[in-house]
Amino acid sequence: MQQVLLFALIGLGAGAAYAAIGLGVTVTYQGTGTVHFGLGAAGMWTVYVFDELRRTGDLLLPIPLVRVPLGSPTGTAVALVLAVLSAAAVGWLSQLLVFRPLAAAPVLAKVVASIGIMLTLQALVVLRVGSASRAVAPVLPAGGLHIGDGAVPQDRLWIAALLTVVTVALWAYLRYTRFGLATRAAAENERAASLAGFAPQALAASTAVIAGVVVGIFCILAAPTLGLTTTGFVLMIAPGLACALAGRFDNLFVVLATGLLLGVVQSELTLLRGQEWWPTWASTGLNDAVPFLAIVGGLVLVGRSLPTRGADAAEALPEVVIPQPRWLPITAVIGGAVVLLFVLRGGFRFGLITSFIVALLALSLVVLTGLAGQVSLAQAAFAGSAGFVVAKLAAAHAPLPIALPFAAAVAALLGVLVGLPAVRIRGAQLAVVTLALGIALERFVFRNPSFTDPAGNPIPDPVLFGISFGVSDGLQTARIQFGLLVLVILTVVALGVANLTRSGTGRRLLAIRSDERAAAAVGINVSASKLLAFGIASFIAGIGGALIGYSRGQLTADSFTVFVGLSLLAFAYLGGITSVSGAVVAGLSAPLGLVFVTFSRLFEDLGTWYAVLAGVSLVLGAIFNPVGVAGAATSMLRRFRAAGGHHRPVAPGPPEPPPVAVVGARAHTGKVRLRTTGLSVQYGGLRALDGVDLSVRAGQIIGLIGPNGAGKTTFIDAVTGFTPSTGEVFLEGLSLDGAPPHQRARRGLRRTWQAVQLFADLDAHDNVAVAAQPFDLRTLVLDLVRPQRAPVLAAVGGALARMDLTPLARVRPQTLTLGQRKLLGVARALAMPGSVLLLDEPAAGLSGADRIALAARLRQFAADGLAVLLVEHDVDLVLSVCDHVYVLEFGHLLAHGTPAQIRTDRRVIDAYLGQASRGVEERA
Ligand SMILES: Nc1ncnc2c1ncn2[C@@H]1O[C@H](COP(=O)(O)OP(=O)(O)OP(=O)(O)O)[C@@H](O)[C@H]1O
């Protein structure tokens, strides 16, 4: 028992460092809205500044090659003050140069930029002082405090106590000072803070400085017990993020408690490791698995499989370049690669082969991040798992055609497992999970002697049809045969990814990337599609990892560290994370690739400089050129073509629009298609919908009107499964109880959105196509080979033509007027097979003439046999076009009847019609 207490107290040192980083992350998030992945690196930077001052008297500056000698080693106090000032400067510069320009940028850009800061700081330290580990002299009293027979180093208790004081001070600052309150307000609403008399940017900068200083000080205090390396503190961002997540980026005391608890748990694990009965396999790396498990567990508990209404659902990402099959350039590039393979020799050829492999790995990010919008920092870990599986299989003499796909399948399975939490979390949180996973896999599996051989895991040469495709042979270090093998695999995968991008499956992934709720409403199973993206991406990464194995002939964990994963994301982003050509650029420019090898002949020490360059260009890329090198080149090419008159043709709709697709319906049957009984929705203390009974028959248009906040949209949300409800919903007489939104959509419920919610990454045609295409396994396989299909195109053309949008088929929603966007929303719903159409304010934004045209169209839909529910504030439209009208007030049905009855109903006039007509008069 005494031992347990002793180890618990010892764990407080590391725990305080985690908590300090967690506090820094939380405070930065409150001030800047950014999850700062580089705070661990900022802490490491501060410790090195402190240690260098004490050792040599040189002041490190965050600029390459600049170092200010102060004469002789300084004392602790001076070193501490200067180091803290440096920490403040780094925090301020990060805000000024990075987060400020990215204030309105997509989450991915912010994540990438903060990783850029992390890589830059780390590379700068390696460049200046090397990467050897150091012992840092203690600042706090180091003597032991005796407990029974044992002793706890006093500094652990001091550091925990000091951090508790700092946490209380930070809490009081944010809660009780005007500046602190304004900071919290600015995180919610910048304009509100400006009105309170504070410049939002000054508030953000102050939090960045505070975060940097707190993290810096506590890293200095913890360094004597934890040791100083260029990676240790950097990776402490994972437990730090776990703490911040536990405190929901808000509650500082939960952050503190989680950090200390993590430290204690890890320390107790060290105690357990010393026990005889403790399994050997659990003796390495378990400490790194703990934060990962804590993060995943916590996030899955609080996450939701679809964002709530009004949540920031759109994870805007760089524009996707949808590739057109241009065989001439493709053949030229492949031909060029073959020629290079034959022309280049030795290290250059090896560099080219490495470029091919990195391009493959980058392709996995194109699928996962570029297409599906899921930020993963664990691609190197997926690759590594396949690499080690290949090592095991090859050792058992498994031939290449078995070992390679099997290893990739293992990676895919792992990817799907990791994707499971991704179903419930999104954006920066997913980046946090994948970062922690990368660390856990590296430490717990790849470096665990129970699973892999630390001295190296030999992989024999691959043999195919009796021919050796080994990478080396005697003096030859990079054989053409191996290069050709890798090139063939890369080509097949690249074509597959290009096809995927152009296909229905690709559109579905892009739809999820744009708007998960709207995607579910067109029948896309968002969770399954995310898992599919994780599976495909990890399979590709697995192939890359297996090829890395074959290319080395000998595998160690060093090929798949977390930093390899981060650097992969960096180069994939720089090349262009949304396109196949971007992956090729990433491959060519990545460390150890062809460009690197070429320059390494010119510059000594290129590796470290390359790392600085990668970090800095990652930050710059995130700010100035999120589409990457390939994206920029494509837009230039597009502009050039446009100037030369090569316009991409507008997709023509079929001349005669086919009728609206109605499943299982004959026109004018009058059968009840949709019926609700006692439908109720509770939002906290608010009864937004209260026992609504309503039915819509085939061939009917039913109006649903009521004042603002009456519950009309909530009714559509409840029917379509987007909000939990009680009561019953029947479609075609069958209960929809428990069915998620995408299943309801597939069963025939189509809807539009008050806020339109089109897919920003897809043009008008593809917005509709994504709803028209059926999905099954056969479609997926076909998508990888032959993406375009005629029946889908016909249905899309028909829906666009019905809403007069054919000439705008190739225009993105952002450039359409509100009215056109509303019509496109209707066209998207029309393209789905189904019998019920729920329209949420389709006339908003339409001109008078367009409203009349819309009314005619609605009547036509009904004539075609659809059951239409119309939610609208344009009372004249509703009363002129609907067969029957329901009126909602405060969530319950006030009245229902024919338009004539509603127009004269006293209660309706008092509650709504009077208001609505006053509104119209006021507007007039
Ligand atoms: N996700 C939510 N959480 C909490 N309350 C909500 C949520 N969504 C809607 N509400 C509340 O439920 C009530 C009904 O809102 P709803 O948007 O359905 O009304 P509406 O009739 O469509 O209004 P409008 O005509 O302004 O669109 C409102 O008081 C709204 O503030």
UniProtKB/TrEMBL annotation:
- How does the record classify its membrane topology? Multi-pass membrane protein
Where on the tree of life does the source sit, at the highest rank? Bacteria
Identify the main location.
Answer: membrane
Where in the cell? Cell membrane
**Domain ABC transporter: from-to ranges:** 674-915
A Gene Ontology molecular function term of the record: ATP binding
Q: Which Pfam families match?
A: ABC_tran (PF00005), BCA_ABC_TP_C (PF12399), BPD_transp_2 (PF02653)
> Which keywords, in A-to-Z order, does the entry hold?
ATP-binding, Cell membrane, Membrane, Nucleotide-binding, Transmembrane, Transmembrane helix, Transport
Q: What GO terms fall under cellular component here?
A: plasma membrane
Q: What is this protein called?
A: ABC transporter
Q: Which organism is it from?
A: Virgisporangium aurantiacum
Upper classification of the source organism reads: Bacteria, Bacillati, Actinomycetota, Actinomycetes, Micromonosporales
